[in-house]
Amino acid sequence: MKPQGFDIWRGIALAILGFFVLFVAYPLVQVLYKSILAPDTTTLTLTGDYFVKFFSRKYYWSTLVNSFYVTVASTLLASLIGLPMAYLLRSYKVPGSKYLNILIVISYLSPPFIGAYAWIQLFGRSGFLTSFLSETFGLQMPSIYGFTGIVLVFSLQSFPLIYMYVSGALKNLDSSLNEAAESLGLNAFQRVTKIILPLVMPSLLAGALLVFMRVFSDFGTPMLIGEGYRTFPVLIYTQFMGEVSTDDHFAAALCVIIIAITLLLFFMQRYVASKYAYSMTALKPMEQVKATGSRKIFTYLFVYGIALLAILPQLTVIYTSFLETSGGTVYTGAFSLANYENTLLAKDNDSILNTYIFGLCAISIVVVFGVLVAYLTARKKSFITETLDTMTMFPYIIPGSVLGIAFLYAFNTPPFLLSGTALIIVLALAIRRMPYTIRSSTAIISQISPSVEEAAISLGSTEFQSFRKVTVPMMLPGVMAGAIMSWITLISELSSSIILYTSATSTLTVAIYAEVIRSNFGNAAAYSTILTLTSIISLLVFFKLTKNKDISV
């Protein structure tokens, strides 16, 4: 007999809330505590010296300025690419548009640092195209390293996010507005700038803020291609994991600063979403028309050209993975499977297997928690579920490297000794990607009428049985589709894994990064190809499950 007043859903909500308190709130509190705790004292002494140290020395605060330069430039360029890309593919019939969309999404789901590595292979000092243009035409290419290279990689890797947001908005755009503007004498350019652009602006701003947050917190790309152009995430990594000297307390202070900045960006995004959000009902959706003349030439050149640039890093790593190398660094020009023999058949190399095992364990946690949290926040509104809803968004805000550092601060001593284990990586991966599945599951459950559950209860089922036998099966197709997208981003995670891994718990992204740092480019290409093919297969499964031809937000 259950105790009087016992509510199973309240118990589940409290248990999940406790999980997030332990694995989200507690690590963040440890970071804050570490950032203001004076070291080497016999008594508890709090200080703000680490923050003073950062803001008083140009060597440190200039990295924050550099990060803003890179992020603003990358976000603007990504918007300038993603917006016309979405408009052209929605407005005109482009042969192979379905496959172009898949290529665009694949370029987004691939880790940015792979793009950095690939562009170095192409336009680095000894890159394929650099050598070819120099030897054939005597052309000296500008340096791919530093600010230019970082912005190039981030822009081409982030514009698909703008594309997906704007494409989703254009899908709901009523073309009668465009036709009315045309009847009033507006030309095509005026219709785009005065009608379409203002209507999609909320989606454009939302996507741009997400790009901003993503670029601002990434450290892999600047580490590989920055070459002296130091950004803030790189400073955090070197202060915590540097080979020369480290300072845990200063690294913690840096983590607090970046958390504060990303929190501000998150609230800006929420403000934009609430202030400028409106609903559009496409009574007469946009129809693709056949482009003619110069418009056709421009559309084809722009769409195919950008898609080629976006997917070029993946094509590069796949091609170079079959090239024979001398010492792992210099390509001989001959084709060989040696790179795959060195990776797939290497002894004591569990990176590939770890990636799939950790990913499957993490995605299982993500799906279970995602469904439960979505149901609780949609159907069981209370102070507890509202608190839970807010707390589940924190991993979305926190950069991966900061989460990894926070986990080591929190779980490096008994009674929560998890550092060095596979469990800490699985938990970090699950928590990092859980907000995406929670949001998609919440959207799905909002489309299911509560009357379906009420009907099951009226037929004798308990509330929990109704949830398990009626609601979950109805949610499952959409949840699984969302889980596949989370899986793709999860196996591509580097920021937290590079902080938490050991030799026994290395993953594919860590292995790729390590091989690039060691200049073992052949092995890095083989690993990257395996990761890319896994993402492509997963994406094709997503399209099969959802029966969609594209992905839009």
TrEMBL record:
* Keyword line: Cell inner membrane, Cell membrane, Membrane, Transmembrane, Transmembrane helix, Transport
**Family, similarity comment:** Belongs to the binding-protein-dependent transport system permease family.
Q: A Gene Ontology CC term for this entry?
A: plasma membrane
The protein's name? Iron ABC transporter permease
Listed GO biological process terms: transmembrane transport
Species annotation: Candidatus Avacidaminococcus intestinavium
Membrane topology (UniProt) = Multi-pass membrane protein
Q: Where in the cell is it found?
A: Cell inner membrane; Cell membrane
Name the source's superkingdom.
Bacteria
Per UniProt, residues of the ABC transmembrane type-1 domain are 64-269, 352-542
Tell me the PROSITE patterns matching this sequence: ABC_TM1
